[in-house]
Amino acid sequence: MSDVVKACSPPDADVRRRAIDPGYSFIVQAPAGSGKTELLSQRLLRLLAVVDRPEEILAITFTRKAAEEMKGRVLGALKTAQAGIGRTALDPHVRFTLELADKVLERDRTLGWKLLENPSRLRLQTIDSFCAYLVRRMPWVSRFGGQMAISEQPEDLYRSAAELLLARTEEEGPVGDAVVLLLDHLDNRLGQVRDMLVGMLARRDQWIPYVLEARTQDVRLRLQANLAHCCQLLLDQLESALAAHRRELLDLARYAAANLAEGGNTDLADALADLGPDADIEARVRAWDLLVGLLCTAKGDLRKTVTVNQGFPAGREGREIKGRMTALLASLAGNDEIVAAIGDYRNRPGLGYPDADWRILQALLDLLPAAVAELRRVFADRGEVDYVEVAGAALLALGDDEAPEELLLQLDAGLKHILVDEFQDTSILQYRLLQRLTSGWRPGDGRSLFLVGDPMQSIYRFRQAEVSLFLMACRQGLGQVPLEPLNLSANFRSQAGIVDWVNQVFAQAFPSSNDVLHGAVAFSPACATRPADPQPAVQVRLQVSDDDQAASEGEAIADLIAGLQREHPDWSIAVLARARKHLQPLVRQLASRGIPFQGQDLDTLSDRQAILDLHSLTRALLHPADRISWLAVLRAPWCGLTLADLDNLIRGDRNSTLLELLEQGDSQAELFDRLSVDGRARWQRIRPALAKALGCRGRVPLRRLVESTWLALGGPACISETELPDAERYFALLEEIECAGDLEDFAQLEARLQQLYAGPGPATGSQLQLMTVHKAKGLEFDAVILPGLHRKVTGIDRPLLNWLDHPEVGLMLAGLRRADSDANDPTYDAIQAIETERDRQETTRLMYVAATRAKQRLYLFGQVRADEDDNIRPPSESSLLGRIWQAVQGQAILVAEEKQTSVTAHPAGLLVRLPVDWRLPELADSLDTSLPVSLSPSRARDEMAGMPKRQVSLRAGEGRLVGTLVHALLERLGTCAPSRKELEAELPHWQAWLVQNGLPWHRREAVANRVLAAMVNVCNGRHWDVLFGRAADVRVEWGLNGLVDGQLQHAVIDRSFVDPSGLRWVVDFKTSAPGRGEPVEDFLAAERDRYRSQLDLYAKLAQLYDDSRPVRAALYFPMIDRLDIL
C-alpha cells in the first residue's frame, strides 16, 4: 500500500479477512492501489503460524523487486512485533499485521525455527529462479547436462537456429522438402523467412503443444471438423441475434435476388433456394455470406442505403421496398448485439483447407519442430538458453500426472501452500507448471493455493502473458484445485477525484462481461479511501489539428511541469508514454529549459546521428560496393560533401562503386569535373585514412578497424562530449558480435542497436521521471502526465503459423498465404482478427494502468482532427485515446492549432561539418612510445613505498558496496538537491541492489541506511553549493589521458567543475570514515597523505586539458560531510 493512512475500516474489510484463511484456496482480483502486497504478506504470516516448517510455503513473484518487497514486509513485521513497541496509536491494519506476526513468533519459538536469524528459510522466489531451481535438481531429466547461462540476447540464438534450418534445402526428407516449399511459398525472400522463424522460436512455448498434437494421421479431418464447428457457432449466434428480423430480411433478400437474377447474377437466388430447414452447414454458410454482404459494405460497416448494385433499383416501383430495406438497416445498426454478431460472422474461418493451403500447413508442422531441434543444438553449442527453455525444462523435470518424476513427489510431500503474485501476467508454460505442482492435491488435504492479480492490469502480451488464464482460473479453478474468487475494492493510492474519474471512464471503456476467447476483462470499480482534493483531479487537453503537434504539446507539458514544481515542490511527477519515441519532443523541451529529469532507456543508439554515421562507416569499410553507406560517409561531418557534389559524383554511372568514381583516371581529370574545389579538398583530406582502413580490412579486429578510422577521420571532433560514451558503446558492441574481423550478419548489428539505449544526460533529478507505461506498472506518483494519447503503435505481426485454442471449438491452425497471391485465407484471417481484438483489449488495459499511477493529479494530452464542418473526428480505436474516447470527449479542453516550434541542436538545412583545413592534433614530441603500459593513479598508488596502510575492516565488503552505490548516486545529482523524503523513498531500491550484489539479506537495512546518511550529508551539507549547486561545466567520471613527467597517464576523475570564480575543481569522493575513537583531523591527515599523489596527478591532467584556468584538487568525504582541499 501507499504511505497514506488507510481508512479504519475499508469497504472490503470482510473480503480481506476472508482471504487470509489458510483452510481455503482463493483467486483474488486486486485492482490498482488496493494493497495487494500487504494482503500477500498477511496471508504469508497467517500461513507461517500454522505450518510445521517455513519451507512448506512457496511464494512466487514475477520480479526480484516484488519478492524483496514481500520478504521485507514480513521480516519487518516480525522485527516490529518482537520489539514490543506500543500499538495503541497504530492504524488498525498495522495492529492486525502485528497480531499475525505475534503468532508467527510464538510458532517460531515453539518449533525453534529462528526465522529472523535465518530469513533464507522463507521461500520467496521469482518464477524464473524457481524454474532454474527445478532444473538444477534434475539436470538429466530436464535435458540440461550442465549449468546453462541465461542469454540476455536470445534473438541471436534464434537467428542462428533459423539460419541452420534454412541451410537444409539440399537435405532429402520431409524437413528439406518443407524448407524448399516454404521458400517458394514466400517468393524466396530468405531474410523475411528467417525473421519469421525467429519470431516463431521466441513464442515456441505457445505453439509447441498444438503442433505436436497436429502431427497425427487424421489431423486434417479433425481440424476441418473444428472449423465447421466454429462456423456453426457463429451461424447460430447470428441467426439468434437476427431472429426478430429474419422474415423481413429474407423477404427483402428475395426481392433483391430476383432483380440481380434479371441481370444474370443468380448467386443470391440459388443460395436462398438452398436455405431450407434441412440445409447443411455449407449451404447455410453460402447463403449467410451473401446475406451479410447485402447488409454490409466491403469494409464491414452496415450500409446506410442500398442501390441497384445490391438489387434495389431506383424508381417509383421500388421506392417502398427500398425504404423498408433502409429502415431495416437503421434498426440493425442501433442494436449492438446484432452489429457484434455480424462482425463476428464476417471474421469466420473457412470450412476446410484447400489442397494448396494444406500443403503449406503440413510443411510448417514438419518444419517448426525441426527449428526447435536446431535451437537446442545452438543452446548446447553456445552454453546459453532462454527463459522459455528453462521453464520448459522445469516442467519436464516434474514429469506428468501418469509418470511423475521423483522431484515432483518430493515437492508434493513437502509443499503445503503456494502463493502467486501478479497472476494476470502468467504465461501458458508457467500456468502448466502450477498445474503440475498441484496435480496431487485434493480438497480437504490441508493444502492451499492463493493467486493474486488484476486482469485489468494485464499488459504483457509481448512477453507471452495471457489474461485468459486468469479468467479461466476464476471460472473453473486451476487443475485439481477449486478456487474461490474474491474481489478487493478499496483504493488506498489515489484521491477520490481520480478514483471517481477512473470508475466513470473505464466502466464505459471495458467490456460489460469477461470473454476468454477475445481476452476481454470486465471492469471492477474501486472505492476511494482518501478524500477528494478541491482542485480538479483530471484534465484532458486535446489539440485540434491535421498536422503533427508534438512540439507544441511538448511545450505545453514543459510549462505544466514547471508550474507543478513551483506549486508543489515536494511532489513526484511522472510523464508516461506508450512508446519511448513519444517522449522525444518533451525531452528536447526539458533540456532546453534546464529542467532536470530521470529518463533511462528513452532513445536507442540507432536514433543518434553520431551512431548512424558510425554504422555507415562500418558498412562502407566492410562492403566497398555499398553505395548508400559510402554516400553517408562522404556526407558525414568529418567530410561534409554537399548534396550537389554527391549528385554530380554518381550521376550517369549506376554501376561503378563510389571509390572507383573517386579514383578514376591517373590525372584525376574526371574527378575535377565531378567535384567542386571544396569537395576535392575534403575528399583528399580523408582519403589516406580510408585507404589505410581498406588495406587493413580483415587483418585486424573489427572494433580496431572502425574505431581507428573514426579517430583518423576526426570523428570525436564532430560530436559533443556527452555523445562520446555512446560511441564507446557502439565500439563495444562491434567487439562483442564481430567474427574474424567481419560481421556474419548486418541484421544482427541493427537489431542489437535497437536494444541499446543512450545514457542519461548530465542534468538528472528524481523528482521528475520519464518512462513508458509498461515500466511504470507497480509505481505511483503525485502527478501523472500522459502525452501523445492519440498516437498509434505498430500492429501485431503476421506469423508463419497462426494458431488458436478455441475454448468451445478446440484447435485451429492456418499457414501464411502465398507472397504472390491476393486471395486471403479466411481461417488465417479469422485467427488474426481474434488476436487483433485481444491487442485492442490490452490497449484499454494499458490506458487503465497509466491513469491509475496518479495519486493527486492526472493530465491527459492528445490530438484530434476536425472534418469540413468542424466536427471532431474520433481518434483511432487502436490508440489509447481511442479506447476511452466515448467517455472523455465531452470533458476535453480543445486547443486550436498552434504554429509548430522546435528545439533542435542546429537550424534546419544547416550542414554541420569540420573545416576543410581541419587536421588531427599532433602528439607531443617527448612521448616515449617504448613505455609498455600507461600509468594510472591507482597503479601509481600501489607502487608507492613506505606508505602506511589503513587496517582492513571486517566490513570491507560492505564498504565496497556502499562506495559503489554512493558513487553511482552522486553521478546522478544535478543542481537541485533531493529532499530527505525523496531519498528515503529510494531505500527499497538501494536495499534490493545491495542484496543483488552479494550483501547478506539481514544486513540490507543497516547498510542502506549508511548510504542514506551519506546522501543526506551531501544534499543537506555545508558543501552542496560548492560541489553541486553553483557548478558549471560539470564533468562526471571524467576520463583524461596525458603526458605527465614524460609518462603517459590515465585517470578517471569522480567530479570536476568550474566554480563562479572561474576556478576548475577536481574532486575525488571517498566513502571512508574515521575508525572508532579516531580523531577526525588525524583521519583527514592520513587520507590526505595517502591520496596526495593521486590528486596531484588529477590536477596536472586537468591543467593539460585546459591551461587557461587554475585547478584546485580536493577530497570529499560524504560519510562525515568534510571537504579537504589539498
Reported CATH architecture of the largest domain: 3-Layer(aba) Sandwich
The global form is: globular
Mean pLDDT over the residues: 86
Largest sheet: 6 strands, parallel
Helix/strand-derived class? Answer: alpha/beta
Cα-to-Cα separation, first versus last residue: 49 Å
Biggest sheet, spatial arrangement of strands:
3-2-6-7-1-8
Write the CATH fold name of the largest domain: Rossmann fold
What is the class of the largest domain in the CATH system?
Alpha Beta
Q: If you compute it from the alpha carbons, what radius of gyration comes out, rounded to the nearest whole angstrom?
A: 34 Å
Specify the number of helices: 42
Which stretches of 5+ consecutive residues score pLDDT under 50? 1-7, 900-908, 926-954
Structure described in brief:
The chain has 1126 residues and is of the alpha/beta class.
List the helices and strands and how they pair.
Layout: H1 13-19, E1 26-29, H2 36-48, E2 57-61, H3 64-83, H4 92-111, E3 123-126, H5 127-137, E4 149-150, H6 154-166, H7 174-185, H8 190-202, H9 204-214, H10 219-241, H11 246-262, H12 267-274, H13 281-295, H14 319-333, H15 336-346, H16 355-382, E5 384-385, H17 387-397, H18 406-414, E6 417-420, H19 428-437, E7 448-453, H20 467-476, E8 484-487, E9 490-495, H21 496-509, E10 527-530, E11 538-544, H22 550-567, E12 573-577, H23 584-593, H24 609-622, H25 627-635, H26 643-650, H27 658-663, H28 669-674, H29 677-696, H30 702-713, H31 724-737, H32 746-755, E13 768-772, H33 773-776, E14 781-786, E15 801-806, E16 810-815, H34 826-851, E17 854-864, H35 880-888, E18 893-895, H36 937-942, H37 956-972, H38 980-985, H39 987-996, H40 1004-1020, H41 1024-1029, E19 1032-1044, E20 1047-1058, E21 1064-1069, H42 1080-1105, E22 1111-1117, E23 1122-1125
Parallel strand pairs: 1-7, 1-8, 2-3, 2-6, 4-5, 6-7, 9-10, 11-17, 11-18, 12-13, 12-14, 14-17, 21-22
Antiparallel strand pairs: 15-16, 19-20, 20-21, 22-23
Helix pairs in contact: 2-3, 2-4, 3-4, 5-17, 6-8, 6-16, 7-16, 9-16, 10-13, 10-15, 11-12, 12-13, 17-19, 21-35, 22-23, 24-25, 29-30, 30-31, 31-32, 34-35, 37-40, 39-40
